[in-house]
Amino acid sequence: MRPTSRAMGTVGTLRTAGIGSGDEVIVPAYGNAEVAEAVVQVGATPVFADIDPDTYCIDPAHVAACVGRRTAAVVAVHRFGNQADMARLRELGKRHEVLVLEEGESAKPYEEVARRRAHASYLSGRLNGVRTPVGHERHTYQQYVVRVPGNGRPDRDAFARVLRSKGVDCTVPVKTPVHRMPGFRRDVALPETERAADETLALPVEAAMSHRQLQRMVSACNALGGLLQPAF
To answer: What is the per-residue pLDDT across 13-36, written as a single tens digit (0 to 9) for each?
Structure first.
């Protein structure tokens, strides 16, 4: 697979910092494999850290627990329009003399962000049976990610299938954490990452959506009563 421009940028930054063979770089396991691939490309070893369950970004507390004598850098990735806690991560980096890198998301025009926020506010005030995103003033809702609780992935996947049958274009944002992918398998305990991969579902909040479309999506979700029986 050809590396993306974002991954190539991470590779260049790591190389410029002199990071390579023998070094470890702490990265999130919740997301795609691009960051871990960039670490491997410079000859270093990715170390996977857990996420904050509200923001889905790398958890500074778990990063601190992962820091070892070979740790050379930490890569924080902003996720779904949430911001990683860069203040805590930079303080940690300064304390341990570790480079802290930041992977952003593509910026959206102000008008689009405002519209997405309005859609998100409407959904959060009306959805039942799912855990809605934790909103804050900086959230740009690149994706509106809810959690379908219950028995994990079977419930979420069954919930998604019913919504799609009703015309709701929902997606599973992260199907497999990176530490479970071939080539990156690690025997590490990342409970929040695993739980998020099993429960999360992204509902559409595109700026062009109409109020009627939002109403139909709320009705479709709420009609399910929140939880479904596991699909076998």
So the answer is: 899 999 999 999 999 999 999 999
Q: Which two tokens stand for residue 75?
A: 């890569």
DSSP string covering 21-68 = TT-EEEEESSS-SHHHHHHHHTT-EEEEE-B-TTT-SB-HHHHHHH--
Residue with tokens 């997405």: 116
Q: Which helix (H) or strand (E) holds 77?
A: strand 71-77
How is the chain split into domains, by residue range?
Answer: 5-103, 110-223
Query: Do 5-103 and 110-223 fold alike per CATH?
Result: no
How many angstroms separate the CA atoms of 131 and 147, rounded?
Answer: 5
Architecture label for domain 110-223: Alpha-Beta Complex (3.90)
CB proximity list for 170: less than 8 A, separation 6 or greater: 160, 163, 164, 201, 202, 203, 204
What is the DSSP secondary structure assignment for residue 173, as one 8-state letter? S
pLDDT tens digit string along 39-82? 999 999 999 999 999 999 999 999 999 999 999 999 999 999 99
The helix (H) or strand (E) run that includes residue 74 is strand 71-77
Torsion sign across C-alpha atoms 201, 65, 83, 75: negative
Q: What CATH number should be reported for the domain whose range is 5-103?
A: 3.40.640.10
Task: Note the pTM of the prediction, 2 decimals.
Answer: 0.90
